[in-house]
Write a sequence for this structure.
């Protein structure tokens, strides 16, 4: 028979084990509930954060779109003000136009194109322009156009022309303009540099000779005259300047013979016989009155020549015309600018096509008329027979 104390101890042990199992189940249940709550809160946080991110992204793109539209609107406003200034120039209200254009140059969008022309790397700019095929942005073109047109309204436009050239460093028209204006103020070094960036047009050759002679660079002047006379022996200004330099003193007489490979045994050069004192005086007066001489060389708006003969297809013609339009818009006036279209080969081909087409058309008309006459005659015959 078992003792009561032993049975009590066994029951206690069993009860205690049951209690422990219940406690473990409760604790596991509580831990599961807490983990579920935590995971739920984390999911809510992630959902909120994703919603916040979505809102942030939407706001960023909205702000970027608004900024782009604002910049486009500002650029359009600047272009409109520039057009208004050009209209004032055409109407003769130059001071009003000058005020508007100077104010436009102070705008932050255009200020970023301002450079110090005294430290500007022209060689690098010319190479870069060639690589980009001289394509520039609308605001860069506006910046250049503003400086060009402001320069036209001032007595000394050189600084503004140079600023315009920082955008179009290969534009020979602008360089020639700088050279001619430099001659007016007797800035020979600037004139020579500007003309050096132009092709060998006669106006450029004349300006170069004037600058070389006035700068007392007689040897360079003689070398330039030699290169021109090899191309055209009748070039009047070159022949006269050559004789004027020759008569300066014995040194330059000897130097002249060396440059032109003349025979020193000859007492008198053939050119010296042909050139009169009146002709020498005429050339010297032109050189001394450089400003007046250059001012009448060409009109303010020189006719734009469009040589379509250089284009091989219709697409190139379109590009050419667009470039001319941009040039007139930037550096001229649509109300005063004349345009000359040329191109012998292309026009001849068009003439042949037009001629052939006209012949074909005439043949076609004759054939149609012949058919009509036949139909009319048949109808007349039928009506007569019915009667």
């Amino acid at each position: 028979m078992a003792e009561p104390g032993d049975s009590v101890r066994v029951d206690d042990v069993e009860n205690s084990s049951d209690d422990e199992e219940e406690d473990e189940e409760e604790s596991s249940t509580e831990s599961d509930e807490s983990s579920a709550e935590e995971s739920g809160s984390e999911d809510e946080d992630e959902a909120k954060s994703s919603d916040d991110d979505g809102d942030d992204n939407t706001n960023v793109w909205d702000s970027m779109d608004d900024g782009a539209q604002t910049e486009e609107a500002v650029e359009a406003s600047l272009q409109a003000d520039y057009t208004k200034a050009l209209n004032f120039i055409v109407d003769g209200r130059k001071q009003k136009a000058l005020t508007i254009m100077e104010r436009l140059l102070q705008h932050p969008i255009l200020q970023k194109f301002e450079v110090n022309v005294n430290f500007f790397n022209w060689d690098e700019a010319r190479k870069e322009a060639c690589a980009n095929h001289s394509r520039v942005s609308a605001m860069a073109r506006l910046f250049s156009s503003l400086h060009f047109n402001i320069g036209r309204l001032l007595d000394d436009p050189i600084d503004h022309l140079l600023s315009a050239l920082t955008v179009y460093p290969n534009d020979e028209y602008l360089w020639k303009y700088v050279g001619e204006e430099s001659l007016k103020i007797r800035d020979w070094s600037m004139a020579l540099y500007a003309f050096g960036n132009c092709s060998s047009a006669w106006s450029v050759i004349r300006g170069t000779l004037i600058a070389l002679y006035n700068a007392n660079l007689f040897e360079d002047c003689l070398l330039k005259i030699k290169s021109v006379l090899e191309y055209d022996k009748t070039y009047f200004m070159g022949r006269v300047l050559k004789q004027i330099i020759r008569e300066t003193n014995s040194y330059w007489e000897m130097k002249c013979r060396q440059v032109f490979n003349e025979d020193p045994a000859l007492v008198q050069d053939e050119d010296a016989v042909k050139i009169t004192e009146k002709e020498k005086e005429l050339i010297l007066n032109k050189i001394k009155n450089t400003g007046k001489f250059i001012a009448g060389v060409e009109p303010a708006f020189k006719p734009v020549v469009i040589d379509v003969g250089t284009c091989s297809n219709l697409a190139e013609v379109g590009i050419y015309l667009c470039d001319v339009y941009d040039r007139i818009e930037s550096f001229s006036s649509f109300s005063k600018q004349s345009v000359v279209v040329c191109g012998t080969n292309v026009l001849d081909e068009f003439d042949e096509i037009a001629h052939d087409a006209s012949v074909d058309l005439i043949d076609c008309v004759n054939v149609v008329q012949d058919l009509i006459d036949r139909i009319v005659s048949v109808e007349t015959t039928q009506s007569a027979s019915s009667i």
